[in-house]
Design brief:
It comes from Streptomyces tabacisoli. By secondary structure, the protein is of the alpha+beta class. It has two domains: about 325 residues, Catalase HpII,  Chain A, domain 1 (Beta Barrel); about 400 residues, Haem peroxidase domain superfamily, animal type (Myeloperoxidase, subunit C), CATH 1.10.640.10. Helices cover about 35% and strands about 10% of the residues. The longest helix has 28 residues.
C-alpha cells in the first residue's frame, strides 16, 4: 500500500483539502510566534524561549533506545527491529512557555531524538498527561494566546475565564480548563518517575496508527527526597538520582481500534488502556553519570539549541491527526524564531485600532482627490495606507507548498560563513527558508494570473507594436540623464532574468499581420512571415495547473549579482588570481572574453551605458577592498571580498532607493517617502505623531528593523517585471563629447555601442568622457510612440528580435492581467472608455483601431498611455507595484535589516554606505568631473554641459 493511502483513511483535513488546511496552519504558526514573543517579554528572558517546554530539567546526549528482543512481528518495521540499539538524545522539561519555579502547577515533557544513521533520525515527543486540552490546532493556539505572558494568578484567571471563552466559546473553554486542571494538580517529585504520553497518533508502518508512551521502568535506585522549596529541585533531583543509577523508561505503543474510541483527529480524547493496552516495544536508558561536569553542561547547552519536531522521522512513522499536522509548521516557525532565523514584527494595538477607520477615510477621499494631489503630510500618510492595502491583498504566494506535510530529516545546521556573507546564489538570505529568493526560485505574483492561450495573439502584437509603441520621433525625459536609463538596466540585470530555451529549443511564433512584410529571424537568415524567438522555460506544476510559474536565473535579492555573478564558479572567475579579494580590471576596465564581451556577473544585452555602470562598481568594489585591508590588516582576503560585496550591494540599494527613484518620480512626497524608507521620517512632530499613531514601524528606516515578508515568501514578481519594462528610456543615437572643453568626439547609433562594440568604444572614449556624455543628455520618456528603433531590430544570442513585440508576448504568456484588470487589481478604478486613457486624437484613433474594447488593452500599452502624476516618469498604476515591491526588497532582506550592522559589515563598511551616494562613487573614480555634477539634484539629473571652446582651448581676456 502506498504511504499516502496508508494514512489517508485515518485523516480529515480542515477546510476539506491539504492545501486549505496548510493555509490555516500557516496563520496559526504566526500566532504561535507572537505567543513566543509575549512569553519572552513577560519573563524577561534574553532572546527567545521555546514556545512551550521552555525550562529544561535535564539534557543528555548519551542515552540509548533498545528495541525488545521479543518485539511483536506486527510492530517490526523500519528502524523498529528486535534487538536494534540506537544512540539517543533526551531532554526532560517543564511544559510552560515561561521559566518558573519547579513547584508551580505545570505539565512536564520528554523529547527524544533517536539517531538511526547519519541520514535518519526519529523525534519522539510526549507530555505527562494522556490527552491534550485541545481537540485540534485552532483550540491549542487559542489557549496559548489566552495564556501568553500570564505570569500572575490574576493574569492567568483573566486568560482562562475571559480571553479563552471569547476565543472558543463557553463550553469548549470549560472542557479545556478541566483538562488542564486535571493534568496539573498532580504533585511531581521526580521527572524520572512520571509517565509521558504522545497524545497525538503516529503511523507505525503496516501496523497503522498508534499512540506511544514512555513509562518508568520497574526498579531503579531509591528516590532521593526533593527539596520542593528549591526552584530548580527537579533538575537537582535527577542529578542526584543519576549519580547512583541509570534512569530508564519503557516505550510502549497503543494500537488504533476505531475512530470513536481511538480517534486520530481529536487530541482531547484518551486512548484508554482498557480499549488499547500498551504494548512494550523498547527501553530508553539514560546511563548513570555526573550531569554537573563541564562536559555534561556543554552537552546540555547543545541540546537547548536543538529543535525537536515529531516530523523529524520517516514517512513510515509519519505523525497523524490535526494537531500533529499543525505541529510541523508551528514547530519549524517557533524553532526558527528561537534561533534568530525568523522574526515577528508585532503591530501596536493603536495602529491596529486606527487602521480600519483611517484606511477607509483615505479610500473614500481618493475617489475625489488622488494621493498625489493631497498636501504633503496627508499624501505621505495616504501612501502608508495604500502600501498596507497592497501588502494585504497583492502579495501572492506562488511557491508549490508541501500539503499534506511530509516527514523530513533533521535540518543540516547553517554554514556559519553564510551568517555573515551573502551566498553566491542567493540561498540562505532567509536562514529559515534557504531556497527563498535564490537562483531558480519562481517569480511571485501581485495579481492572480490570467492564463488565456486563446488571446496570446489577440490583437496581433506586431500590429500593437507598430501602431502604438514604435518611436516616431524622439520624446525626451528632460528631468533625467541617460545614466538613469543605464542604471535601471544595471539593476534589472541584478533582479530578474527568465530562463529561455537555447537555440534549437522551443520557440514562440508570432504571425506577421496581413500586409506586414517579412522578417529575418537570424542574421543572414531567410525572410519569413512570422517572428520567432526563444520560449521561456516554465516550471512544471502538479495536476492540470497551467504553466504560469517561471524560475529566475538571477537571485531575487538585491545582492549585486550583476557585478559578482550568480554562482560560485562565475564569482571566483571574476576575482584576481589566487583568491584575491579584488575584481579583475585591466587598465581600469573590465577584461573581455574572446567574443569581445566583458567578464561580468551578468552581460546580456550589453551596451556602453551598462559597461559604464559595471566599470564604476567594479572599481568601487576594489576601492572598498583596499580600505578594508588598510583598516583591518588581519582580515583574510576571503572575508575582505565578502564584506566588500555586502558594502557595494547595500550602497547600490541605497542609491536606487534615495537617488534614482526620486529622480524618476520627482515629487516632494516621493522624495521624503523614499528617504524615510532608508533613514526614517523627517524630524518634525507632525510626521512623528502621525506615524506613531498609524504605522509605528515606519518611525525608523528599514535598515533598523527586522526582516518581514508580510505573509508571503519573498520573491520578485511577474507584475514587477512588467512595470519595469522601461525600454523607451534608451535613445537611438548618442553624441559623445569630452568634458574638458565640451568638444564633440563623435555621434554614434545604439548598434555602434552595443554588444562587442561597447568595450572598444568605452576604452576609446574613456570612462570620464562616457559618464559626462551620458550625464548631459536626456533619455527617452516612458510613453507611447517612443520605443527605440534599435531595440525593435535587436540581435542577441543568434536571434534578431523586435523587443517591443517580445515585451507584449511575454507579458501575455506569463499570465499578467491585461491593463484594465491590472488597474482594478491594484485598487484603481477601471477605465470605461478609450478617452479615459488619452486625449491625443491620433493615439485615440489608433487605440480604437487596434483594440476592440478597453478590456483588451495590453498592460504595457496601458501603462505607457496613462497620464502620470506631475513629476512622474511613469504611470500611477505602475507606481503601485513599485511602492509595494520597493520597500519589500529592503524589508525582506536580512542583510538590509537585522544584519545591516557593524558586526557584519564592519564599522568602516557601514560608514561607507551611509556616507556615500552615486555622486561620491563617480567622484572616487573620476574626480575630474566634480564641477559638472548637479549641485542640488542627484547624479541622475542632467549635468552641467561645458560650452564648446574653439580649438580646444579657453580664450584669455575679458
Amino acid at each position: 500500500m502506498a504511504e499516502t493511502e496508508r494514512y489517508a483513511q485515518y485523516e480529515r483535513y480542515e477546510g476539506g483539502s491539504p492545501e486549505a488546511e496548510r493555509l490555516v496552519f500557516q496563520r496559526l504558526a504566526r500566532e504561535i510566534m507572537r505567543v513566543q514573543v509575549a512569553n519572552r517579554e513577560a519573563s524577561g528572558a534574553p532572546g527567545h524561549e521555546r514556545a512551550f517546554h521552555a525550562k529544561a530539567a535535564l539534557g543528555v546526549e548519551n542515552a540509548r533506545l533498545r528495541f525488545n528482543d521479543d518485539l511483536p512481528a506486527a510492530l517490526t518495521a523500519g528502524f523498529a527491529r528486535p534487538g536494534a540499539d540506537y544512540p539517543a538524545t533526551v531532554r526532560l522539561s517543564n511544559a510552560s512557555g515561561m521559566r518558573g519555579p519547579d513547584s508551580a502547577p505545570d505539565l512536564h515533557g520528554v523529547a527524544v531524538r533517536v539517531q538511526v544513521t547519519g541520514e535518519e533520525s526519529h523525534d519522539l515527543l510526549a507530555t505527562s498527561f494522556p490527552v491534550s486540552h485541545a481537540r485540534d490546532a485552532r483550540e491549542f493556539v487559542a489557549f496559548a494566546k489566552a495564556m501568553a505572558g500570564a505570569r500572575t494568578p490574576l493574569r492567568k484567571a483573566y486568560g482562562l475565564f475571559v480571553k479563552l471563552p471569547l476565543a472558543v466559546g463557553l463550553g469548549t473553554a470549560a472542557r479545556m480548563r478541566r483538562n488542564v486542571q486535571a493534568a496539573t494538580r498532580h504533585t511531581v517529585n521526580s521527572l524520572a518517575r512520571e509517565t509521558y504520553w504522545s497524545r497525538g497518533a503516529i503511523l507505525w508502518s503496516e501496523a497503522g496508527p498508534v499512540r506511544y508512551l514512555l513509562r518508568p521502568s520497574v526498579g531503579g535506585a531509591t528516590e532521593p527526597r526533593p527539596d520542593r522549596t528549591d526552584p530548580d529541585f527537579l533538575h537537582k533531583e535527577l542529578a542526584r538520582r543519576l549519580e547512583r543509577d541509570d534512569v530508564s523508561f519503557d516505550l510502549c505503543v497503543q494500537r488504533y481500534v476505531d475512530e470513536r474510541r481511538t480517534p486520530v483527529e481529536d487530541g482531547s480524547v484518551e486512548w484508554k488502556e482498557a480499549v488499547s493496552p500498551p504494548v512494550p516495544v523498547a527501553r530508553l536508558t539514560i546511563p548513570r553519570q555526573d550531569v554537573t561536569t563541564a562536559e555534561a553542561r556543554s552537552a546540555a547547552r547543545r541540546i537547548e539549541e536543538l529543535a525537536f519536531n515529531p516530523w523529524f522521522t520517516t514517512e513510515e512513522f509519519r505523525p497523524l491527526g490535526n494537531l500533529n499536522r499543525a505541529r510541523k509548521v508551528a514547530y519549524e516557525a517557533s524553532a526558527a524564531q528561537r534561533g534568530g532565523t525568523r522574526f515577528t514584527t508585532e503591530e501596536p494595538l493603536r495602529n491596529q485600532v486606527l487602521d480600519v477607520p483611517v484606511g477607509l477615510a483615505f479610500r473614500i477621499l481618493n475617489r475625489v482627490v488622488p494621493w498625489h494631489k493631497l498636501p504633503l503630510d496627508a499624501g505621505l500618510l495616504n501612501l502608508v495606507f495604500l502600501r498596507k492595502t497592497l501588502r494585504r491583498f497583492n502579495l501572492i504566494d506562488t511557491d508549490v507548498q508541501e500539503a499534506p506535510p511530509k516527514a523530513a530529516a533533521v535540518p543540516v545546521p547553517v554554514d556559519e560563513r553564510l551568517r555573515t556573507a551573502r551566498s553566491y546564489d542567493g540561498t540562505y538570505n532567509d536562514l529559515s527558508a534557504p531556497a527563498m529568493g535564490a537562483v531558480g526560485a519562481a517569480f511571485g505574483r501581485n495579481l492572480k494570473p490570467v492564463y488565456r492561450p486563446d488571446l496570446f495573439d489577440t490583437p496581433n502584437p506586431v500590429t500593437v507594436s507598430r501602431r502604438l509603441l514604435a518611436r516616431e520621433s524622439f520624446v525626451p525625459a528632460t528631468s533625467l540623464n541617460i545614466l538613469a536609463a543605464a542604471w535601471i538596466q544595471f539593476q534589472v540585470h541584478d533582479w530578474v532574468n527568465h530562463r529561455r530555451y537555447k537555440e534549437g529549443g522551443r520557440t514562440v511564433e508570432v504571425p506577421l499581420p496581413p500586409g506586414g512584410g517579412t522578417w529575418a529571424n537570424q542574421p543572414n537568415g531567410p525572410e519569413e512571415n512570422v517572428m520567432r524567438f526563444a520560449e521561456n522555460e516554465g516550471i512544471e506544476l502538479p495536476g492540470d495547473r497551467p504553466p504560469v510559474l517561471f524560475g529566475n536565473t538571477a537571485s531575487h535579492w538585491w545582492d549585486g549579482s550583476e557585478v559578482y555573478g550568480g554562482d560560485e564558479r562565475t564569482a571566483r572567475s571574476l576575482r584576481e588570481p589566487d583568491g584575491g579579494a579584488r575584481l579583475l580590471l585591466e587598465g581600469g576596465h573590465i577584461p573581455i572574453d574572446r567574443t569581445g564581451i566583458p567578464l561580468a556577473g551578468f552581460k546580456d544585452n550589453w551596451w556602453m551605458g551598462l559597461s559604464a555602470m559595471h566599470t564604476l562598481f567594479a572599481r568601487e568594489h576594489n576601492t572598498v577592498c583596499d580600505a578594508l585591508r588598510a583598516e583591518y590588516p588581519s582580515m583574510s582576503e576571503e572575508r575582505i571580498y565578502h564584506t566588500a560585496r555586502l558594502v557595494v550591494s547595500a550602497l547600490i540599494a541605497k542609491i536606487h532607493t534615495v537617488e534614482w527613484t526620486p529622480a524618476i518620480l520627482a515629487t516632494k512626497t516621493i522624495d521624503i517617502g523614499l528617504h524615510t524608507n532608508w533613514q526614517g521620517p523627517p524630524r518634525n512632530w507632525l510626521n512623528q505623531l502621525g506615524l506613531w499613531l498609524l504605522e509605528a514601524h515606519a518611525l525608523t528606516g528599514i535598515p533598523k528593523t527586522m526582516p518581514d515578508h508580510h505573509g508571503a515568501p519573498y520573491s520578485l514578481t511577474e507584475d514587477f517585471v512588467t512595470v519595469y519594462r522601461m525600454h523607451p528610456l534608451i535613445p537611438d543615437d548618442y553624441e559623445l563629447r569630452e568634458y574638458h572643453f565640451g568638444q564633440r568626439l563623435e555621434t554614434v547609433g545604439f548598434h555602434d555601442i552595443q554588444g562587442a562594440a561597447a568595450e572598444s568604444q568605452i576604452r576609446k572614449t574613456g570612462l570620464a568622457n562616457t559618464l559626462y556624455s551620458f550625464g548631459i543628455a536626456n533619455p527617452g520618456a516612458i510613453t507611447l510612440h517612443n520605443y527605440p528603433d534599435a531595440l525593435r531590430h535587436f540581435q542577441r544570442d543568434g536571434e534578431i528580435i523586435d523587443l517591443s513585440v517580445v515585451d507584449l508576448v511575454r507579458t501575455r504568456r506569463r499570465g499578467v492581467p491585461r491593463y484594465n484588470d491590472f488597474r482594478a487589481g491594484l485598487h484603481k478604478e477601471r477605465v470605461r472608455r478609450f478617452e479615459d486613457l488619452t486625449r491625443d486624437p491620433e493615439t485615440l484613433s489608433r487605440l480604437k483601431d487596434v483594440y476592440r474594447d478597453v478590456d483588451e488593452i495590453d498592460t504595457v500599452v496601458g501603462l505607457f498611455a496613462e497620464n502620470p502624476p506631475t513629476g512622474f516618469g511613469f504611470s500611477d498604476t505602475a507606481f503601485r507595484v513599485f511602492i509595494l515591491m520597493a520597500t519589500r526588497r529592503l524589508q525582506s532582506d536580512r542583510f538590509l535589516t537585522v544584519d545591516y550592522r557593524p558586526e557584519i559589515y564592519t564599522p568602516l563598511g557601514i560608514d561607507w554606505v551611509e556616507k556615500s551616494g552615486m555622486k561620491s562613487v563617480v567622484l572616487r573614480h573620476c574626480p575630474e568631473l566634480a564641477g559638472l555634477l548637479p549641485r542640488e539634484a542627484s547624479a541622475f539629473a542632467p549635468w552641467r554641459p561645458v560650452p564648446p571652446v574653439e580649438n580646444g582651448a579657453a580664450h584669455e581676456g575679458g
